[in-house]
Amino acid sequence: MTHTTISGTAVEPFYTAESLPGFKLGKAGEFPYTRGIHPGMYRDRLWTMRQFSGFATPEETNQRYRYLLEQGQTGLSVAFDLPTLMGYDADHALAEGEVGKCGAPVSSLADVEALFDGIPLDKVTVSMTINSPASVIWAMFLVAAEKQGADWSKISGTLQNDILKEYIAQKEYIFPPRPSMRLVTDTIEFATKHVPRFNPISISGYHIREAGSTALQELAFTLRDGLEYVDWAIERGLKIDEFAPRLSFFFNSHSDFFEEIAKFRAARKLWATIMRERYGAQDERSLRLRFHAQTAGCSLTWQQPANNIVRTALQAMAAVLGGTQSLHTNSLDEAYALPSEHAATIALRTQQVIAYESGVTNEVDPLGGSYFVERLTLDMEEGAQNYIRQIDEMGGMIAAIERGFPQSEIAGASYRYQCEVEAGERVIVGVNGFVSQQAEPPIEILQIAQTAREAQCAKLAKLRVERDSARVGRSLTALRRACEGRENTMPPLIEAVRAYATLGEICDALREVFGTYREQSIL
Amino acid sequence: MSQPIRVLVAKPGLDGHDRGAKIIARALRDAGMEVIYTGLRQTPEMIVSAALQEDVQVIGLSILSGAHNAIVPRLMQLLREKEMTGVMVILGGIIPDEDAVRLKQQGVAAVFQPGSSLEEIVHFIRERAGQPSGQTAT
């Protein structure tokens, strides 16, 4: 019987030195950084404990942020609701039933100000999970920070802003690929010049994996997406070492423990090698792949939810042993609702127990040198190189997306996995094995009231009356003109945001110029 | 030989999480049904219109965004208005128990929560397709 990883990779019963002919392993903090991007890793500084959070209204979300910071979280991560993610205001017809359900609603600068009320943006780093309207939300963030007295040259944080993976997996696209890439490149250029400590992009594999890809596909498609952004930035006229240091990544930390650790190590080695060999990057910071990890939401179950605490702990451990810079741990109620305060606290404590009690932070890359882990790392590297080459031959990632390549790879892997589960070949504890005969005891879940929408609509009505409509109109006209031309869209976006133009109004202007995208579904 | 059961698999609302809907669509096809997948971001109006045009016996809705309490009743209302109550509506996604109970009272034939098996869903549709919404097989 063949034993395979969860991704279907066959593994031997054990590996020896013979499994690694001619193998050389470098040091952490040295090219190609397989063992870690810093020589001391967690001995010097722990990963950032950055729990993804947002719900109902900006005010309630602000309270949860303050709570999590009090409980020892060390960075913020903003979840936005679906209307916001799709560039609609809370009072749009399509926002009906959706406001505040998946994250915090943000329709204007006023909402961002409320979101970070009492939270010093020059001291706390903020990551924002926003893609199609990322530059708009970033403009709101920058203005809110400035109003707090923060200096753009000093503030740090991350914008997800990875539109390619939207077409591939998360599907929160608005505009077609090329105008969207222009918007992303505008943010990278603006950050390079004006907000140099900010990470304007978080090139993501998490969502690709959640959509059902294998670990290898997650790795390969993420890195290849990264290369597409690099190519566009270079095309814009930026030098590799000007912007590459601030490209960041976001990976899933899934259930197959050793496969995940190998994936993270292979990611670092591949990126460093490609940056140097393909792009001639010289600055070490351009070569060091920095990433945030999130434990796998798709692995968590509705049945016997307490088991999810265990799953999350193992996945978090894999991310730590894989050398992550930042980590979100999921809550036990993942399959039910957004995290309750209780569940979110356990998730944070999971990281704290690993950090302070397990001892793994005393050692850099403790699994380095393991025959198994090193073999898996090498195989992952080779497999990813094959995929990258394939996509290069198709003409790049946009071309590959247009022909449906990554989407069909993911759909195939996802269906294969589900068939394995159906056939009982993959056991999911509590779901198709060790099933409870009794009904599940109810767990307390977070409820989002319909009043969230009402509150947001009332704020919007007030805002539209109080602001300077002429200034808003002028700013949107200037924005449209910028979009039609070639100037960087960030300055006109910032002006529109200052005038309290709403997210929906701004995105409508962008939609007018760029058009909207409709995908060809691939089953 | 009987006609294959025709199923519309739909993603209503803004939710873009389509992994489950796509697997269901493919599994139903493998089980011999004719499946039309609507793609993302469908309004209740678009779904009902597609169901009518495609002359389906079943509408499968996939909602993971928490918007089911706004979307599903409106869809059920539209089916009533268009005299399409013979179409069976099933729902999957992140649907809390209490909402599932209420939605079934409003005519949804079944709610498949996370972890439901494909076999269970195929079996349910085979047994029940052709029965009016909310009524049990005789």
Strands of chain A, total number: 10
How is the CATH topology of chain A named? TIM Barrel
Q: Name the beta content range of chain A.
A: 5-15%
Find the CATH superfamily of chain B.
Cobalamin-binding domain
Tell me the strand order in the biggest sheet of chain B: 2-1-3-4-5
Helical amount of chain A: 40-55%
Most extensive interface between two protein chains, with residue counts: A-B, 42 and 34 residues
Describe the overall structure.
In chain A, helix 10 (257-279) runs parallel beside helix 12 (307-321) and helix 10 crosses helix 14 (371-394). Chain A has 20 helices and ten strands. Chain A is α/β, with parallel strands linked by helices and 523 residues long. Chain A has helices at 58-70, 82-85, 109-115, 134-147, 164-170, 177-194, 206-210, 215-236, 240-243, 257-279, 284-287, 307-321, 341-357, 371-394, 397-402, 405-422, 451-466, 469-484, 490-498, 503-514; strands at 48-49, 52-53, 76-79, 126-129, 157-159, 198-199, 201-204, 247-253, 291-295, 326-328. Chain A has one domain (39-422): TIM Barrel, CATH 3.20.20.240. In chain A, the strands form two sheets. Chain A has a five-stranded parallel beta sheet. In chain A, strands 2-3-4-5-6 form a five-stranded parallel beta sheet, with helices on one face. Chain B has 138 residues and is an alpha/beta fold. Chain B has one domain (6-128): Cobalamin-binding domain (Rossmann fold), CATH 3.40.50.280. Chain B is 41% helix and 17% strand. In chain B, helix 2 (44-54) crosses helix 3. The longest helix of chain B has 14 residues, at 68-81. The radius of gyration of chain B is 13 Å and the shape is globular. The two termini of chain B are 22 Å apart. Residues 132-138 of chain B have low confidence and may be disordered. Chain A binds chain B through residues 82-83, 85-86, 88, 94-98, 101-102, 170-172, 210-212, 298, 301-303, 335-338, 411, 414-415, 418, 422, 428, 431-432, 442, 445, 448, 518-519, 521-523, and chain B through 13-19, 22-23, 25-27, 29, 37, 39-41, 43, 65-71, 94, 96-97, 113-115, 117-119.
